[in-house]
Write a structure and sequence with these properties.
Elements: H1 2-8, H2 11-25, E1 33-34, H3 35-42, H4 46-58, E2 62-67, E3 70-75, H5 78-87, H6 93-96, H7 120-139
Antiparallel strand pairs: 1-3, 2-3
Helix pairs in contact: 5-7
Length: 140
């Protein structure tokens, strides 16, 4: 489990997952995105995007399809369901359902003492991401 948390801890990889999820849920073509499309959308260099895609692929979060010299990536949201299942017990029941407001909420505090709990916002956001991915894929 630690490996997948390390993988999704990187903001570029989370952004890649978000792009691929959007393509899948919006039914853009087959839900795939070529490396060049991802490079253009992220405004990063091709080697940087490819490095992050390799990490996502090795973690089982994306799959790749080769067509000629092009590679097309697609999200595998079932891999994130393990993360969501792990995080879910730590969240209040209302927060386990998909939510649009994760980024706007304040960080959790340590027993109401006012001191932020390290990683609480990240864990909550990650849990919501995993739950949202599973929810959207089931609907698609």
């Amino acid at each position: 489990m630690a490996d997948i948390f390390a993988v999704v801890a990187d903001p570029t990889r989370r952004e890649l997952l978000g792009i691929l999820l959007r393509r899948r849920t919006e039914s853009v073509a087959s839900g795939d995105a070529s490396v060049s499309e991802l490079v253009a959308e992220l405004a990063l260099s091709q080697p940087t995007v490819s490095k992050h895609l390799k990490v996502l692929r090795e973690a089982g979060l994306v799959t790749v399809r080769e067509k000629g010299q092009h590679r097309y990536y697609r999200i595998e949201p079932d891999a994130l369901s393990d993360v969501g299942a792990w995080v879910a017990p730590f969240l209040p029941p209302a927060e386990v359902a998909p939510s649009e407001s994760a980024a706007s909420e304040p960080a959790a505090t340590n027993g109401g003492a006012g001191a932020p709990v390290p990683g609480a916002r990240w864990a909550t956001g990650l849990g919501r991401l995993a739950a949202d991915l599973a929810f959207r894929v089931r609907r698609a």
